[in-house]
Amino acid sequence: MSTMNIGTEKFSIRMEPSGVEVRCGSEQTVLDAAIRSGMSVPYGCRHGNCSSCKAKVVDGDYELMNRVSEFALMEFERQEGYILMCSTMPRSDMIMEVEEDEEPGLQLFPVRDFSGEVVSNERVTPDSADVVSGSGPFGRMQLRSLDNDIVFVAGGSGLAPIKALLESAFAQGFTRQAWLFYGARTTKDLYLTEHWFDWETRSS
């Protein structure tokens, strides 16, 4: 089961210029609180390395985690009150300047914790595992439109989200052309090849 420690004490964080207020636990990152509240804010690695979730604290106390890269958040930026939301936990109520990441037509799905039970397991590659836990959905990987031809590119186990996109597209009556380019280190690491050949036959 996936669990997250958010702490018993909670603080209010006001995001400017939108004025949205979110509640954040003392052991919860500001980014996690923001995306769980439904805010659309930019982020990437979620581990303090990419600087996509950079924001500025206008008022309030906070703790910046040691994992934040010196390159992702320079020392002079820290002195000016900039933080990476993925690696910052509140220590009081806060006011922050945050750039919301809005994209017309993009549907947002709330992040939630979940647990799953594996009821059957078929090893499609030699090193596949049978243990599942997680939180999600994170990120913005979804089809924006079904009105265009689409090229899909995947490698190794990275085929999994591509498979989900293709299944979703065909379930919605996708009638355009779709090409899948899929590779792996060795032929034994390729999986579901018969599945894709069957799809190719049925769609041709």
UniProtKB/TrEMBL annotation:
Keywords associated with the record: FAD, Flavoprotein
InterPro entries in UniProt: 2Fe-2S_ferredoxin-like_sf, 2Fe-2S_ferredoxin-type, 2Fe2S_fd_BS, Beta-grasp_dom_sf, FNR_nucleotide-bd, OxRdtase_FAD/NAD-bd
SUPFAM superfamilies, A to Z: 2Fe-2S ferredoxin-like (SSF54292), Ferredoxin reductase-like, C-terminal NADP-linked domain (SSF52343)
Domain (2Fe-2S ferredoxin-type) ranges: 9-102
Record protein name field: 2Fe-2S iron-sulfur cluster-binding protein
